[in-house]
Amino acid sequence: MTLKVYGDYVSQPTTAVLLLCLANKIDFELVPVNLRTGEHLGPEFKAINPTGQVPVIDDDGFILSESTAILRYLAVTRNVPDHWYPKDVKARARIDYLLDWYHTNLRQIAVYVIQKELGPTFWKIPRPDEAQLKPAQGKMTASVEILEEFLLKPEEGPFLLGAPQPSIADLICSCEYTLTRYLPQEEQEELLGRRPKTKKWLKALEKTLGRHYSEINKTLPELLKLVADARSSG
Amino acid sequence: MTLKLYGDLLSQPARAVVILCLANDISYELILVSLVKLEHRLPAFKAINPREQLPVIDDEGFILPESAAILKYLAVSHHVPDHWYPMDLKSRARVDYLLDWYQTNIRQTQAYILKKELYSALWKLPRPQEAEIESAEGTMIASMEFVEDYLLKPEKGPFLLGASELSIADILFACEYTQTQLLPSAEQEKLLGKKPKTKKWLQTLEQSLAPYYAQAHKTFPELIIKVETARNGN
């Protein structure tokens, strides 16, 4: 039975899982769960995952949620090339560290972007003012700064922690940065402008996984337009 | 060279690492980095981990932060009994799921207790805004309800997700719950009073790991006195 991935392209963790599948020719069937219409909160999906969160996989009846658990599971069960989630205990521990750090740090990008742009656009939540956004913005900026300062070592290798090849940590982290494209241009520039190592890393990933990124980001132009229009109509 | 564990028993994740080591005869040296004295911000510790995070291990020069990553690494590299972090891919995926869910859910318990009780009791800091405390409280309550309603299946087994033996997820979660002992009794009762499955699970864990639990929580009696004094003194 083909692997089922329940998700939505607007969810970055979903796109990270799809990216791993595409890059490794893992057959899957995307079962859309429309976050914009609140389908994830309906009884049908909650029967599959009571938290209402995507992505979720159904691997021949084995149901698993939490994107990073899914990425690990697919990497080991599908025998993908070692660099995605190395068998070496120390190399694997470094990736586990990155995946944990992502949850409590880099995921703040989503918290901020959802609060500022996606919530008001898609779920008609009132637009927060600058003061209300400050805490989330601070946490996001701090995380982006940490990645730039401590987690990239281009003198050793182009990927996270100086690895010569990408891992599942590179996938989940880079997909998070895609969310920044929903922000106004000046804000994107402010966030990434003075972070050359980050820009280089994102480019290296895009180069390695080019057409797969295009595939997972195919709904992005339409979504970006919706967000920009909502922003200008106030 | 003995494993070095940089930490403070005030920290829930540090206690979980201590319990794993004690329960499996993994020799370690606990190097106290006092959170109360803000020692994690001193140059001596920053030289080990520029990110100022605890706990961190130094395994013969291999430095690793992030408690979930540390627990996995120690379980695998010290070949502990399988139940701690099973080799079976699906069982392991379930533990990964729990550890990932923990990061953005039950781990937020620490934010609530920190802000409501510990800031003033231990650091003499002013109490944060009510809204901030309420938000942390909301996440904590929702997480504990989710554990009670969905993650404990005593009809299958006494541990998380109905496992018959405990895993690293059980101890990491449990150390968040023990931190609630720093709250007023009435509040502890409110949180755990109507959660029979949770109370049973915590009891079973404590019994299974008795001397190690006691060791990891040895600073609690003194801490509780400090917190109660501050609470009554204000």
Total beta-strand segments of chain A: 4
Total count of domains of chain A? 2
Helix content of chain B: 55-70%
Please state the overall shape of chain A, judged from the principal axes of the Cα atoms: globular
* Helical stretch tally of chain A: 10
Kindly report how far apart the N and C termini of chain B lie. 47 Å
- Main sheet specs of chain A: 4 strands, mixed
Strand order of the largest sheet of chain A: 2-1-3-4
What does the overall shape of chain B look like? globular
CATH class of the largest domain in chain A: Mainly Alpha
Poorly predicted ranges of chain A: none
The Cα radius of gyration of chain A reads 18 Å
What is the terminal-to-terminal distance of chain A? 47 Å
Strand-and-helix sequence of chain A, N→C? EHEHEEHHHHHHHH
The pLDDT mean of chain B sits at 94
Q: What's the pLDDT, averaged over the residues of chain A?
A: 95
Organism (chain B): Riccia sorocarpa
Protein name (chain B): Glutathione S-transferase
Pfam family, one (chain A): GST_N
Protein name (chain A): Glutathione S-transferase
Provide tags for this entry:
heterodimer; A: 234 residues; alpha+beta; Glutaredoxin; Glutathione S-transferase Yfyf (Class Pi), Chain A, domain 2; 10 helices; 59% helix; globular; B: 234 residues; 57% helix
Can you lay out the helices and strands and say which pair or pack?
The complex is a heterodimer of chains A (234) and B (234).
Chain A: E1 3-7, H1 12-23, E2 28-32, H2 43-48, E3 56-59, E4 62-65, H3 67-77, H4 89-106, H5 108-123, H6 130-151, H7 168-178, H8 185-192, H9 196-216, H10 220-232
Parallel strand pairs in A: 1-2
Antiparallel strand pairs in A: 1-3, 3-4
Helix pairs in contact in A: 1-3, 1-7, 1-9, 4-7, 5-6, 5-10
Chain B: E1 3-7, H1 12-23, E2 28-32, H2 43-46, E3 56-59, E4 62-65, H3 67-77, H4 89-104, H5 109-123, H6 130-151, H7 168-178, H8 185-192, H9 196-208, H10 210-216, H11 220-233
Parallel strand pairs in B: 1-2
Antiparallel strand pairs in B: 1-3, 3-4
Helix pairs in contact in B: 1-3, 1-7, 1-10, 4-7, 5-6, 5-11
